[in-house]
Amino acid sequence: MEITKCQAFVTFAGVEPFTGEAENYPAGTANPPVPLIRSQTQFHTAMAVQRPRNLDKVVAAVLREAEFAGDAFYYSFPRDGKKIEGPSIGLAMAVAREWSNCAVPVEYYETPTEWVFNAHVVDLERGFTVSRVFRKKKGNGAFKKLEDDRAEDMTFQAAQSRAIRNVVLAGVPRWLTDQAKDRAKETVLKGIIKEGLAAATERALKFLAGYGISDARVIAVLGKPKIEWDSEDIAALRGLASQLKDRQATAEQLFPATEAQEKRPTAATPEPETKVKRGRAPKAEAPVTPASPASLLPRAAAPDQLQAIRLGCAEKDIDLGLILQGHNVSQLEELDHDSAAMVIDWIEGQ
Fold first, then answer.
1. DSSP 315
2. If residue 344 lies in a helix (H) or strand (E), which one and from where to where?
3. Where are the alpha helices (DSSP H) in 100-247?
4. Contact 73, 186 (CB under 8 A)
């Protein structure tokens, strides 16, 4: 028995070209075609999306989320009498999510000494792409007290989060992230007023104490006694606390133990007692070697200089070890006053 196979041939004359324009389809059509225009290059991808971005709704959603997030949306710390504030990784991710029709791909490669993250924000609706490169030296970073494997992983994750935050803040409108940060801080300040300054202060100190941070270290960072703290200071502490919770920094970075290093009392040399024996003259005192003139000794770095260096490194993600290596010292306290001033100027220029 023979089976005959038949083939149906379709001519190109019967194919209707797709123009990209919306057509009128009968009512009740389950899945009407969605017009899609896409063009790809090495740098961007542009497409006509099904739900275009509504800027009013985006702003309203971001600000509403900021009211719920509070101190999780910003970081804050005092430096040289000023408060340094900025949006957190949580705020950046919320804005990217509400901005819609965008993607945040991250690529990375590593060298023997560092990780290099290439992060991008791709606005699918506008065909706009911005990229940022973030480098981080390998090692335990700020998590040196943990096990090597865990510390290295936490350093890697923190670096990746900063790469994402940096590129998102560069790819979305600055006014939007500023409004979200301000709204979050306003919410925190209102909560402090409602709770009461004394209760809010004790709650902040109790939280920081859980990370081994003493009251003296907190006072050193704020630069004034507890009796002079106000709502802004507590809001700043909560911004610092959010960095600890998100593992973006450690207690040693944000609250360095400088109170013991500010003034190290030199051990007083006991004066030799004069022993008098009967029939003998008193024992003469040992000659005292004169101290070197103060002008010949290098002036030590001031505590506020050391704190400015630590906070600057934490803010701009600068590896403190590179600074120590460049000045041939093993710890920051070994810097003299002039070297510390040079380091501060260099950090501010980064």
1. H
2. helix 337-348
3. 148-171, 174-195, 197-209, 215-222, 231-245
4. no
Q: What is the pTM of this model?
A: 0.58
Where residue 283 falls among pLDDT bands split at 50, 70, 90? low
- Is residue 303 exposed (0-12), middle (13-18) or buried (19+ Cβ within 10 Å)? middle
Q: Where are the beta strands (DSSP E) in 8-145?
A: 38-40, 45-47, 74-79, 82-87, 102-103, 106-110, 114-123, 128-137
d(Cα 66, Cα 58) in Å, to the nearest integer?
Answer: 12
Give the model's pLDDT for residue 150: 76
Residue 109's pLDDT is 92
Residue 36 has a CB neighbour count (10 Å cut-off) of: 11
pLDDT averaged over every residue in the chain: 76
CA-wise closest residue to 218 among 236, 232, 245: 236
User: What is the Cα gyration radius of the chain?
Assistant: 31
Place of tokens 């002008």: 295
Q: How far apart are CA 313 and CA 306, in angstroms?
A: 11
Between 294 and 209, residue with greater pLDDT: 209
